[in-house]
UniProtKB/TrEMBL annotation:
Domain HTH lysR-type: 41-98
Name by which UniProt lists this protein: HTH-type transcriptional regulator GltC
Domain of life: Bacteria
Compositionally biased intervals (Basic and acidic residues): 340-369
Compositional bias (Polar residues): 372-386
Keywords in alphabetical order: DNA-binding, Transcription, Transcription regulation
Lineage of source species: Bacteria, Pseudomonadati, Pseudomonadota, Betaproteobacteria, Burkholderiales
Region annotated Disordered, chain positions: 329-386
Record gene name: gltC_3
Natural source organism: Pandoraea morbifera
Pfam families assigned to the protein according to its UniProt record, in alphabetical order: HTH_1, LysR_substrate
Family, per entry: Belongs to the LysR transcriptional regulatory family.
Length: 386
């Protein structure tokens, strides 16, 4: 039996715990108006929930929020009691958001993003308020292109902090779509429906070999040509390692790793010592060319990738995120190698030249010298990207 209008209790406004500045959200609608209430959420509580979800534990979230564990636990418990639902599911390794917690996190991200946008647009830096831009990036962009660019941006924006997270391209897209990241850097092979994108950099994957290795004299290699070899690689959870392992599994011959190291320079040094082969970005291989390693381009279509910047809606970004996006797109911010672009004569090649050139060049490989200081450049691939 439905309650009459007279049975519907007026909405009660609950006090915000501990913090004067609060945002108001209305809990999920219910059919029984006696249970409906307007709940005030403290902004510190919203940030804490996001930090706990990111850290995977209340202890980690408390540290990032600069709160004691007891204070953080009390805040989350107070929210759960107010809402009447569990926001996090506790387990032996930490916590994960419950379905209700995921709904709260989605709202919290939007609320805090709007507040961040307001702060920038109203110029409240005089009050000591700082902006934070969240970037999710694949391995190559994170290690080869972003460090210099982000360092220069921070030098010119002292009131901005950047949270940078390495993820696979699919995970980056998901983070941007869900509002967990402001800006993503991904390969253009991934599905990008629902996002605004702009080209960022070119990424060519190459095989690096020990000095004098039999494969070092090859002009180019197909990925399948090296699957019987042993490799030095990045950590298993890195985005590039997952990318390569995925293609190896598709070929039915998983990669065999002798050693995993934390960065490309370390990988190339191990290769130079004669341990095994490796697959790294062209920029990283060039940087280590003085070690005497062989550098041979992979000619698989997926080995030549255009990295793109992606956002959910540029105009809705906080002002600091828009400024960073402009900085990453600025022509003067290009840190790529000069020969990463085709020579003028390649740009104007004739139809006859295309018909007679080496078949490997349809994947964008030309002049691949494999010893000393190699000259490897990226041309135009089958689908027209450069």
């Amino acid at each position: 039996m439905r309650p009459s209008a007279s049975q519907c209790a007026p909405e009660k406004r609950l006090p915000a715990p501990g913090h004067a500045r609060a945002a108001t959200l209305t809990s999920l609608p219910t059919r029984h108006c006696s249970n409906a209430q307007s709940v005030r959420f403290d902004l510190t509580d919203l940030r804490l929930c996001l930090l706990v979800a990111d850290a995977g534990s209340i202890t980690g979230g408390a540290e990032r929020a600069h709160l004691t564990l007891a204070s953080a636990s009390a805040r989350i418990r107070g929210l759960e009691e107010t809402l009447g639902v569990a926001l996090f599911v506790r387990h032996r390794q930490g916590v994960i958001p419950s379905p209700a917690g995921r709904a709260l996190l989605a709202h919290a991200r939007r609320v805090l993003a709007q507040i961040e946008q307001m702060r920038g647009e109203l110029g409240e830096y005089a009050a000591g308020l700082k902006g934070n831009v969240r970037i999710a990036s694949n391995t190559v962009a994170m290690s080869e292109f972003l460090p210099d660019l982000l360092g220069a941006f921070l030098a010119n924006h002292p009131n901005v902090e950047i949270s940078l997270r390495e993820q696979t391209s699919p995970a980056v897209v998901q983070a941007v779509l869900e509002g967990a990241a402001d800006v993503g850097v991904v390969s253009d092979w991934i599905e990008l429906t629902g996002l605004e994108t702009v080209p960022f950099r070119q990424d060519r994957l190459v095989v690096v070999t020990p000095p004098g290795h039999a494969l070092s004299t090859r002009q180019a290699l197909d990925f399948i040509d090296v699957l019987d070899e042993e490799f030095i690689g990045l950590p298993e959870q890195s985005a590039l390692a997952e990318h390569l392992d995925g293609h190896a599994k598709q070929a039915g011959r998983p990669l065999r790793y002798r050693l995993r190291l934390r960065d490309f320079d370390s990988v190339c040094r191990a290769v130079a010592a004669g341990a095994a082969l490796a697959i790294v970005p062209l920029n990283a291989a060039r940087r280590c060319a003085t070690l005497g390693i062989g550098i041979v381009p992979l000619c698989d279509p997926w080995a030549l990738r255009t990295l793109v910047l992606c956002v959910r809606e540029r105009d809705a970004l906080p002002v600091h995120a828009r400024q960073l996006l402009d900085h990453l797109q600025a022509p003067g911010s290009d840190t790529g190698h000069p020969s990463d672009t085709p020579d003028t004569h390649e740009t104007h090649e004739t139809h006859e030249t295309r018909e007679t050139r080496d078949p490997h060049e349809t994947h964008g490989v030309r002049d691949a010298k494999v010893s000393g200081n190699p000259s490897i450049a990226i041309g135009t691939n089958k689908n027209g990207t450069t």
